Amino acid sequence: MTVTDDAQPSAATEYRLDQLQWLESESVHIIREVVAEFERPVLLFSGGKDSVVMLHLATKAFWPAPVPFPVLHVDTGHNFPEVLAYRDATVERLGLRLEVASVQDYIDDGRLRERADGTRNPLQTQPLLDAIVEHRFDAVFGGGRRDEEKARAKERVFSLRDEFGQWDPRNQRPELWNLYNGRHRPGEHVRVFPLSNWTELDVWQYIGREGIELPSLYYAHKREVFERDGMLLSVGEFATPRAGETVSTRQVRYRTVGDMSCTGAVESDAADVTDVIAEVAATRVTERGATRADDRISEAAMEDRKKEGYF
Amino acid sequence: MPTLLRLATAGSVDDGKSTLVGRLLYDSKSVLADQFDAVERVSRDRGLESADLALLTDGLRSEREQGITIDVAYRYFATAERSFILADCPGHVQYTRNTVTGASTADVVVLLVDVRKGVQEQTRRHLAVASLLRVPHVLVVVNKVDLVDYDEATYDQVAAQVQQTASSLGLSDVTTVPVSALVGDNVVEPSGRMPWYTGPTVLGLLERIEAVGAPHSEPLRFPVQLVIRPQSAADERFRDYRGYAGQIASGLVRVGDEVTVLPSGRTSTVAGIDTADGELTEAFAPQSVTLRLDDDVDISRGDLIVTSRSVPAVTQDVEGTVAWLAEHRLVPRTKVLLKHGTRTVQAMVQAIGGRLDLDEARLRAADSLELNDIGHVTLRLASGIAAEEYLHSRAGGSFLLVDAQEGTTLAAGMVGDALLATAAP
Ligand SMILES: Nc1nc2c(ncn2[C@@H]2O[C@H](COP(=O)(O)OP(=O)(O)O)[C@@H](O)[C@H]2O)c(=O)[nH]1
């Protein structure tokens, strides 16, 4: 550009967003579309890093107004206490309404039965779907990312669920340009994934750049653990060592936080976000492969759960 | 911090698309150990000697069972220079639907051609779709050169054929690379087996290609998503706040700019550009921001804020090209919803002007459109939109047709006669 007048920007400026700015802008656009087009959105908030980043993006999307929807936690009853404390503090700080759907309640009154392997992650589907119906939520924000897993790689940003909450991977709406189609019939709802295009590394780099606080167990700490199926499980109420499993105190951190009985820690010295970014960048195993027993059961474990209505 | 580039793959079955994508992921070290172990295990179970990289991209169970890919899958890989979002589009089932979807957001289409077969009907169609969707760059991977003994003359012939076809479809920026996806020649690492080829590798090209146009060369278009009015905000300062939230679709906005609000045509001046991180003096596409205007104009979702230096016409009559994606056929007098930017209006398909023959890249007479057809339609809208030629603006010229009852997405639409532009010699 040779001519420069007041109305023209200087040619020297580079009008280009870096990767994180681009992703942030896309996610903010998605979150705003939902609020503009749906009547009763809700955001799934577990205190896990993806849901924390998603909520952070929501606060930015509506600033200076408050986040205009409640958050929902599907509580397995097997939570890390640090994560629950973090959840409550965050909800309080942002002035949000928190709904809790409790797996424990379902087990107590017999609507669900404990699985033989003790894992409660798959049991979350029913309470989640019931809460959606009860509160008549029509859009449900989830923190799923397409890089997490094969079935998720095919997920839309706006993903329609039928009246039974089911996902039909063979019958998804095409998603064109940035024109999202959120229309649905009564009884149906839409799962929305604002972090679809983020990778695990993006999430961590963004947490670093934005200075987002996380539950402490994402960072290295000393913990009593024992090894089971190649995973380090935390000794506690929900996971007790069996005969032959020895307990030791190790320096660990968590890459995902979920059901304590099946979420493994990894040995790590990464004490802050900079260390974690370096660790994730160099890592050779996916976060689900490393730390989620329930995803290792079969090649299609996630696909099957998603079809039934899981996150 | 690297920038992002969006890719879409295309190719006929067995040209080696999955192998190429697997190679890109593997050689760029984006495949983690547990994913690779799974691939090795399955490869062994199937009696293969080495890991079949194509398995890395098999997603759903039914796809693995049938050995085909059904739906667009998104993959992520990165180098020090760039991060890539790759829309992996299967070539056979629902081919138009998938390639149109992938191409709609792509900066680059990566198209595979088998060097032994040269340009096929499918190749031509994929190039036509890339042209129709105005994808800025096309990279044609001439694959399986190991099977012709890395012969220069054979490659040259195919490359020339590709260029000729591309230019007949109105594509100017098309690059070809000789590749063996299976062996890895020229995918990430340069090949020692083709001394006659001195150009960059596939990944080298992808790292170098310019992402889409510089924002300041286009006029400002800002579709309003919603109005932000924090009346109940605890903070006194924001009691009277009124801002218009949106993502800049094209161009650049600065505080003090004269703007026009469409469809009303009211004018105002930009008083502020807000983000949660603070005020900006200027912002550009594709930033998400909140604009404040000087006057208390009545603005709501679906309005379009544009620079007063270039104001598009608002019209209720739209001529467009659509890719029909629904099972049932489209006939004239069908009522639909049309979504353009953040505006959704009722529309009536008045007439069907013809169906595009992708093989010949010309329009044929037709009075209906079937699933996966691309055709020309005339639409009458219940209220006006600022429709711009897709040829000049991907953001201002794209729309969806949606079924009002079912809610399904019926068609991908592009304003203007994209067909003629494509078929022009
Ligand atoms: N010799 C040779 N075979 C290849 C090459 N690329 C792919 N193939 C083989 O071609 C077949 C089809 O490849 P695939 O990647 O599944 O094709 P897709 O259907 O396009 O995804 C497989 O048997 C591959 O091993 C190549 O560069 N050279």
From TrEMBL, chain A:
Superkingdom: Bacteria
Pfam families: PAPS_reduct (PF01507)
E.C. number(s) listed in UniProt: 2.7.7.4
Coiled-coil stretches: none
A molecular-function term among this protein's GO annotations: nucleotidyltransferase activity
Gene3D superfamilies: HUPs
UniProt keywords, alphabetically: ATP-binding, Nucleotide-binding, Nucleotidyltransferase, Transferase
Top-level EC class as recorded in UniProt: transferase
Reaction(s) catalysed by this chain's protein: sulfate + ATP + H(+) = adenosine 5'-phosphosulfate + diphosphate
Pathway the protein takes part in: Sulfur metabolism; hydrogen sulfide biosynthesis; sulfite from sulfate: step 1/3
Family according to the record: Belongs to the PAPS reductase family. CysD subfamily.
Cited HAMAP family: Sulf_adenylyltr_sub2
PANTHER family on file: SULFATE ADENYLYLTRANSFERASE SUBUNIT 2 (PTHR43196)
UniProt-recorded name of the protein: Sulfate adenylyltransferase subunit 2
Source organism of the structure: Aeromicrobium halocynthiae
Annotated gene: cysD
UniProtKB/TrEMBL annotation, chain B:
Residues of the Tr-type G domain: 2-216
Top EC class of this enzyme: transferase
E.C. numbers: 2.7.7.4
Record bears the keyword RNA-binding: no
Record key words, sorted: ATP-binding, GTP-binding, Nucleotide-binding, Nucleotidyltransferase, Transferase
Protein's name according to its UniProt entry: sulfate adenylyltransferase
Organism: Aeromicrobium halocynthiae
Matches recorded under Pfam families: GTP-eEF1A_C (PF22594), GTP_EFTU (PF00009)
SUPFAM superfamilies, per database record: EF-Tu/eEF-1alpha/eIF2-gamma C-terminal domain, P-loop containing nucleoside triphosphate hydrolases, Translation proteins
Heme is among the record's keywords: no
Signal peptide as annotated in the record: none
CDD domains (alphabetical): CysN_ATPS, CysN_NodQ_II, CysN_NoDQ_III
